[in-house]
């Protein structure tokens, strides 16, 4: 019985095969993309989308955001919150939005992700704030000699330059959230996309310097921002707020043994969750059943699914020949379909990764799986052991 091996059916991507994929290749960083210092896989729009699987959640997000920005009758809202565990594609989705806003005409195969009718025909202003990169203590030097102290100061400058910053200058200097009218004036009637990433991490930084009032102002700012965006016909805000295993707002720096100040941040996160739940459309960029598609797209250049069917057929023949010593579930139609859907990985490989790593505090869902499986594939192909297959 000659069963095709993974070496016969699958061609890994060059960086995976060479074992040169770094940790940063799977750790999306919005700020690095925006300032031009990200790894090529994230910085180059065409390469970024070539490695990205068009998940249902990502396609819904792109369609919803650009329907709003282009004033399409199909728009469903103006505020979107990306809810998922860490490593589930939140920042990746924000990067996809920024690339389309700035580089849509140069991106190949974009039709996989969004209807061309919804692509922007005019310039879209994009302002992004990355809580992971932000400092809670130091002013940020932007252009024109402007120094900002808050997320709203930075966003105002990115949208409107000096003139835009002046609308919130006093609020920025005093670390007091601006009113919705100032923000609405800032946005105006121009197509405007505001991206807010890792807000919970920024809150943790503020809490660490005992800036309790500054922490409270974040909720006031979001409330005012949501109101301003809803009142602006072609404005949209997308933000991330990670959730833990229990479905509660969380952050990557949270400790198991919370001290008093940690509880303050937890309470603020719960308040943010409450505010956003009343206003925002919730989306999950990568749902559980799509994980395999994300893994295959990033790890392999090509998978011969016709040869994969030979593998499934051979498995069935082996099961039929040994049905007396195999469990009943081994030869069901569902089992065969799972083999097809998960090829070249056995379904139990992914089930084990999901179940065994779900309790690990720092394991980051799809990102963590990519790191482990990229190393495994590189090792296997490096040794070319013809008795091995996944």
Description of the structure:
- It is a single chain.
- This protein has 390 residues and is of the alpha/beta class.
- The chain is 50% helix and 9% strand.
- It is built from 18 helices and 9 strands.
- The strands form 3 sheets. Strands 3-6-7-2-8 form a 5-stranded parallel beta sheet, sandwiched between helices. Strands 1-9 form a two-stranded antiparallel ribbon. Strands 4-5 form a two-stranded antiparallel sheet.
- Mean pLDDT is 79; it is low at 244-262.
Question: What tags apply to this protein structure?
Answer:
9% strand; five-stranded parallel beta sheet; alpha/beta; 390 residues; two-stranded antiparallel ribbon
Mean pLDDT: 79
Give the CA-CA distance, first to last residue. Answer: 17 Å
Q: Are there runs of 5+ residues with pLDDT below 50, and where?
A: 244-262
Strand content: 5-15%
- Strand elements, count: 9
* Share of residues in helices: 40-55%
Strand order, largest beta sheet: 3-6-7-2-8
**How does the helix and strand content classify structurally?**
alpha/beta
- Tally of DSSP helical segments: 18
Q: Over all CA atoms, what is the radius of gyration? A: 23 Å
Shape: elongated
Order of helices and strands: HEHHHHHEHEEEHHHEHHEHEHEHHHH
- Biggest β-sheet strands, sense, barrel: 5 strands, parallel
